[in-house]
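Standup notes, structure subgroup. Blocker cleared on the heme C input:
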Amino acid sequence: MTMGPPDQSAGAPDLSMTQGNPDLSDADLATNPVTPLKHESRSSAIAISDDDKLVAAVSPDDDTLFLIDTTKNNSTNPVKLTSGCEPRSVVYAPDVSFWVACRGNGTALKVSDLDKASPTVGTPITVGAEPTAIAVSPHGKFVLVANYADGTVNLFDNNGDGSVTLAVGPNPRALAVTNGGGSDDTKETAFVTLMFGQPIGGNVASEGNDTGRQGVVIPISLATSGAGAPINLAPIADTGFKVNNKANQPVVVGAYPNQLQAIALHNGNGYVPSTAASPAGPVNNAGNIHPFVSVFDASKMSERPFAPSGSNPNTRCGTNIAASTAGYGAGTLDLAVQVRDLNGQTQPPPVLFPTIPVDIAFVPQANIDIAYVVSEASDEVVRVAWEYANNTACLGAPNAMTINLQAMAGDVKVPIGIAVRNDATLAYVNSWAGREVEVIDFSSQTVSARVPLSPAANDPVNAGKKLFWTSTGRWSKAGWGSCGACHPDGLSDNVTFVFNTGPRQTLPLDAVYGKPNGVPDPTDQRVLNWSAIFDEVHDFENNTRGVSGGLGAIVSVNKNPIDLTATKDLNLLGSVKQLAADGATPRQTVNAGPVETVDTTVASAWDKIDAYVQTLRSSHKPSGLDGNMVAAGHTLFQNAKCAECHGGVKWTVSRRSFTPAQGAGTGSPACVMQTTMLAKKSVPTGNVAKPQNNDAFQLETEHTKQACTLATQATDCAAFPPATCNASTLLCVIAPQRLTCAVRAVGTFGAGAQGTAFEVRSDTDGNGNPLLAEGAAGFNPPSLLSLAATAPYLHNGAAPTLEDLFTDVAFKTHWEAGNPNFAPTSDDAKNLAAYLRSIDPSTSPEALDPNFDLCQGSFVANNNAVCTNP
Ligand code: HEC
Ligand code: HEC
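Run returned:
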């Protein structure tokens, strides 16, 4: 029995659905009696058998499950799974087996006969698309799988029989099942997290707002296999952090739970770590993402909120906490608060901010509530103790503030899961890029052993993976940020950050490069960012420095950051890639520091990140799409000439047609493009020609009358002083420069629910006034890959669903952009949305009309125009 795909048009999951149980014959259980599981089952990238003898760790990169004999801890038994399995989650089942969710090929399978040299890999069971989590009920009556791309959970029995599909809401990510100790699994409840924060609703703006969304956990009754009312995990309006804006006014940092990648149940409570998002400006490492653990009462199904501590000091962490200390109550925590307090003035800090808290596991004892939280970016595990009796919670252990996974061997690990022994002595951590399992000894609070999984691939891609995910070392300030923190799975955290150019939905990175037939083509690169302001992945050096507060990798041999403005290699000028490779030419370092040469060994990090970005795969299409709707949508797509902007293998016309070159002197590509007229394109429509692009030169800043009018909704540019506006002509000049051949004006600036007021930048001017965002003259067409994982849509997240994009008249200019006579009905919108969701690497791309590729690369400089950058 299979239900259709979830209704993605509804913001909230459809909880009314209640279905029958999977077809479980209790005879199965009677003939195969099992010893029930000892504890609550939970999805993770690593699992341990109930007798503590065997650890199983997934290795997504080589379709392998590594079994480790814990009595030896020195070797592994690699069990090859199915080809394309890409195992993401593993769980121990009561019949002494491990169940694995294969994210890559949409299956689940059982590995049994664990005591044999070659364990048995069971027949794969087809589940939904992109299964990311698997968990089991105490007696194995239910195996549950969360299908990330489908918005569903599959339930079947431990023999793989009787699968039912339950719609739970968009992008379910992690699973846990209660364990009440009874004999009847139908008395238990499963909990599934939705990966992304969901809109609070009402009049609260969901985008660019620190408190606009909330975390959601859906309970599933195993008596009915039906979903219950969602448990909401609230945003924290005031985390206690403040960031100053340019007018030196302190701005309070709030954040909402997002990226709910794990869940654990313990002593009647549920614990959900998240990479909470703080999208409102100003941009600052302390004001972008926060490591949360949200806590809920699993019987009352409601949150134990972020709150001050009670009146007694906490003893479990070895620190005394004053009565009523904000953020130390026994409930939801912002771990950043506690890390900040522990670090005090110590530099470098002893505890890194536990960025990307990807997994959590409890010490399995009934009388205490102590968990270990794994930070994927900071290569550390932090111990957190909740004490409900005196209402306190704190981070650290009396003998150690943190557990550094790099301590035994100092290379980057990128841990993705943790399992704790049932005898409460050790934990095992699966380090994905480090390709090893670290053993943590609870008595010393240190890594006591490392078990290699298989020879580490030493190619640029694995090296780039480490650099992409890590927040350690030069990559952020005190562990605060990493590329992966906002680009989960290499895609998007779906947050609309208010960045330096305006409100910006995090872009997925699977379409930065074209991948014909799955093979990356390094010559087919998108122009980058919504406003087409970058032309190399290396340009994100400035993000590492600005967004994450790191030192960065473009540094001199004396470890001083190179001044990218002085070298004229910033953004579309010059080439950071070439700069990184030139160790001979002396360069200006920042803050008018000494002139020194680039450390090319360090700077080559960006070539590795670039190589890794080329390998990021797109999401598979949801399963169970209606073929007739997809076909109808395809025809509409062709009639509407969407491919004029969304054609080709990247599903976007955006293409870098030149090779950036170092510096920006006369004759450089940047200079020539600044003086080359743009080939404009219009769509003929009766008597009117609708321009797709309004700019004059290939490379220029925006100066637009429309922007000024919108900005003030009144008469002049007064709200956006001083240099950005020329009040006499009402022309706004809005930096930075954009590659205009990649930009299309489709009427989306300020359009949609967010309204015009939202088109502001992260920071204010020196007087605290908002500054107008870039984009009134258009945006860089995004790719149409991975749409099932990247709602909401548009640069500012103004379209909650794909259907909205073709029904809300605010977006009419966009849907008419290729064919002014395209007038979709609401059925058309549904069909078009179905087709868009079906686009994945297996879909044949729509041909790009070369006429509409305005980045042709034959630049003819206009001698009357003056290049502004030499
Ligand atoms: C705080 C969240 C955050 C962090 C950290 C972050 N990004 Fe992004 N990324 C974004 C957002 C938001 C955008 C869209 C920005 C825009 O268009 O102005 C983006 C866009 C991009 C793009 C452009 C993709 C395209 O197709 O246009 C690339 C490439 C990229 N990021 C790479 C990186 C790398 C590499 C790092 C680490 C050095 C990184 N990002 C760190 C949020 C983040
Ligand atoms: C003239 C160029 C152009 C045409 C034609 C065009 N688009 Fe777009 N499309 C864009 C631009 C530019 C954006 C980004 C606008 C923004 O973010 O404000 C966009 C955004 C989108 C998005 C949002 C993607 C995301 O990740 O946020 C989807 C989906 C989309 N277009 C589908 C379509 C479909 C379907 C058609 C045909 C009916 C179409 N587009 C026609 C230029 C175009």
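Discussed briefly. Residues 288, 481, 483, 485-487, 497, 499, 501, 504, 506-507, 509, 511-512, 526, 528-530, 537, 540, 543-544, 547-548, 609 surround heme C (ligand 1) (CB under 6 Å).
Next: hand off to the docking folks.
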